[in-house]
Task: structure prediction
Amino acid sequence: MDVEPDHTASRHAEAWETRIGVPESFTVAGSEAESAELPGGVAWGPLIEVLRGFLDDLAGSVPDAVLATELTRQIEQSAEALRRNQVPEAQQAFGHRVDLHGRGQVMAPAFVLTARGEDSVEGTVTFGRFFLGGHGAVHGGAVALLFDEVLGRLSDTSSRPPGRTASLTVNYRAVTPIGKLLAVRARFEEESGRKRYLVGEIWDGEILCADARALFLGLRAGQD
Result:
């Protein structure tokens, strides 16, 4: 991979806010009025929270035939309404609401920011039943997904152009438990041209559950 010596704007992709119209990751909307201007408006956050809880409840239940049939009908009705409200990717709220926990999406566990440094973040995560692998442990893929989510978002901060994951190595040190408030730490380790090396950790109290090291490549102008 080649190494570029600077961040000249003309040689790199535009920042997220210019390309998509949402603020930089790990920012918080200052008011309800500001949230209303973002995709999905003020109603999007509560909708995602209900959906996240629904997925956890569904994963932990075995509905009888009557309930399963009724849920199927209700979900299909809602899906039909959503199909009438499709928009291009750049206009969607799912995954673009960086003012909300988890970017306003349910694909990845919701990271809750508690502190931010110039090139680091700290926060918490609680993996719900939806992310269960077995025997009370979080699925290993969900752990990797959280690292890719948090490290990738941090990679794009401080006016850097958007980047893509080039590699992600995860070390599973202990069981990552379901349903517990866990600490998450992430920071830049090294940066050279387009290459950004970041590291992260997940802690259950004094127990290191997992750590990761990732390489992200900043996009050039014209790349998506």
Q: What stands out?
A: Residues 1-10 have pLDDT under 50 and may be disordered. Helices lie at 16-20, 32-36, 44-59, 65-83, 140-155. The longest strand covers residues 207-218. DSSP finds five helices and eight strands in the chain.
